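Structure tokens please, single chain.
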Amino acid sequence: MAPSLDAELCVELGVLFDDNEAWLAGVLTHGEETSVGSDLELAVLGDRNVACVRVGSLWIIATGSDPIADEAWRSYLQHMAASVAKHGPLHGILTWAPKHGPSTTQRKMLTGEFADAVQLSARRRMAVVSDSTVVRGTLIAINWVAGKKLLSFALQEVDLAFDWLAEDAEFDRAVAERALPQAAAALEPPHEKAGARRREVSSRAARRTRH
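Here you go.
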């Protein structure tokens, strides 16, 4: 069964799913992981504000609508370190971050405390997919420290990001293209999004009635 995405995200990723479909099955929270494909592991961390997936030597991270908590970021890096220890180094990183990226403290956590555990020196390319200049700036700061190739892409340029990463990282493109919307969808159960949309529509309707 396909995961459920809100309409805006469906358009951005070029994927269309039914809002009435059940939420992505098999996703585990609190840093646990489960196999959902040949070499695909999906984890949802913290308060469903960070999700990550590994496909070959490509790592995909999706961030949610709230700033990332330090505790969630630490759990995320621990999960990445466990994946590197189990499956080997990561050569490509795709960060889907429409609104929020790691803070200064969290960047230092990555480039300092966890640099060896996640084998940061093995990274070849990092793609940031975001329309936020703030997010792009925070991740470019990681690039300055790590000395790796990093490019930023707009939300509608996901295909270009995959093209660029594939030049220097080994992964199944079809699996990765399925993994990204799964990770994004796992950040927040669709009934919460649907409820928020219903409340917004009701509020607008009430305002129109008053006028």
